[in-house]
Amino acid sequence: MKVVILGGGSAGTSAALELRKRDKDCEILILEKTSYNEYSPCSLPYVLCGEIKDFENIMLFTDDEYLQNNIILKKNCNIKSIETNNNKVIYEFEGNDLNEQYDYLIYALGSIPILPPIENIENTNHYFLRNLDDAKKLKEVLHENKKIIILGAGLIGIEAAYAAIKNKMQVTLIERENQLLKNTLDSDMSIKLEENLKNLGISIIKNTIIIKADENKLYSENNSYEYDVLVIATGLSPNANIAKDSGINVNHGIIVDSSYRTNIPNVFASGDCVEIERMNNNADCVMLGSIAYQSARIIANNILENNNNTNNSDNYNNNKSSNNRKPVLGASIAKLGNIIIASTGSTLEQAKNSRINAYGMIIEGSTRSGYHPDAKRIIIKLIADSDYNLLGAQIIGGEDVSGRINLCSLAISEKIKLDKLAFLETVYNPGSAPINEPISTCAKMLIRKIDVINSAK
Ligand SMILES: Cc1cc2nc3c(=O)[nH]c(=O)nc-3n(C[C@H](O)[C@H](O)[C@H](O)COP(=O)(O)OP(=O)(O)OC[C@H]3O[C@@H](n4cnc5c(N)ncnc54)[C@H](O)[C@@H]3O)c2cc1C
Prior knowledge:
This protein is about 30% helix and about 25% strand. By secondary structure, it is of the alpha/beta class. Strand 11, helix 6 and strand 12 (about 205) form a beta-alpha-beta unit. It is globular, with a radius of gyration of 24 Å.
């Protein structure tokens, strides 16, 4: 069996490794456009802000490791098209068009930054933060006291802003929405993040649409904003055009079933380029490394089981639950020095937009006993429906955020009701965890709020 993987990033490489773990003999070939081995895109902001010393430190695989795993990584290959009828990929290598036959194909070409509709933007010297080359170029211009504008206050935008402030630049973050992190935080939590960013020295301009750009200035309807460095972080688009042109069904991203199979039975797709079902929401592209990695096991299982079945009975349908993805929560986390921001599930606004009777509660707590010198502030928002089902959680805190948000993800996906979180047996030790676990406190207060609303009905 020969598996060809398009794209040697997070989704492609993890799929290759999972396949190799389960099958010692299949042929695995990755075709990758750049000259890089797999690296961690999620670590790019850490190199820019200086927390990780060098780009060398975020390379995940050496040439030897590919060899040891018997995975062939062919670099500098630009995929051009797929002939799904003939099981063939056409790609450009050193100026020549070459092709490769496959039994199974995994399409994992990631995403590309969106250039917003701003007059003259294409003539400005702007930067992105999507891949290693982008980050290397950006690092060259992060100079003390220079003015930098970051356009777009999503996760990548705020990470870029933090990196710039750590490089002692004059940083302005411009966002067209009325809040930061619109997709993951409600406005009341976003305000708390904003306070933190302002305290670091980042200027934040919201509700502002940039309509025109020149070499050193951006213009909105009423204002202009000077810059030395311009970073565009206004969103990513799934890199799905090659799939679309090859007869693979694409909506916003590539359409896959719960086993990451496209409409072509021996073509799978994963990572930023696919759209998947979200809990309480429609299908959308959930561009997270965590999801890309988790898809690898499901794809590997399906390819190997399909291959065995095909050899025996030509049956492509396998519905084992371990081979199928559940709707995703989109759980995400970012760390800006001492500020950690995480969220999972729906925001209150998203839940209400989905016509759910949803309620939210915010509390402020402490990560250890309040009197402990290392205790950090933590702000928690829980969102639940009128039946006390947890729908979402948002946390901003100084430490221990990931464990709490993962607990909330478990509660949402397993439909664990608020009372179980409220009366959970939690650990206590003044130097490690407070006597009142903030998640439990927040859950108790939200139960009370919903009780009052339900009894008034
Ligand atoms: C700055 C930053 C920070 C992030 N932080 C986090 C985080 O903290 N947590 C998290 O979960 N996610 C994070 N993400 C998102 C995460 O990195 C992506 O979701 C993940 O890398 C997607 O994996 P992928 O394989 O789909 O795309 P990629 O890893 O980008 O891989 C796609 C590969 O395809 C190659 N390619 C593209 N076009 C072609 C072509 N025509 N021919 C051949 N090869 C091609 C590319 O060169 C690339 O190697 C972050 C992303 C960025 C940019």
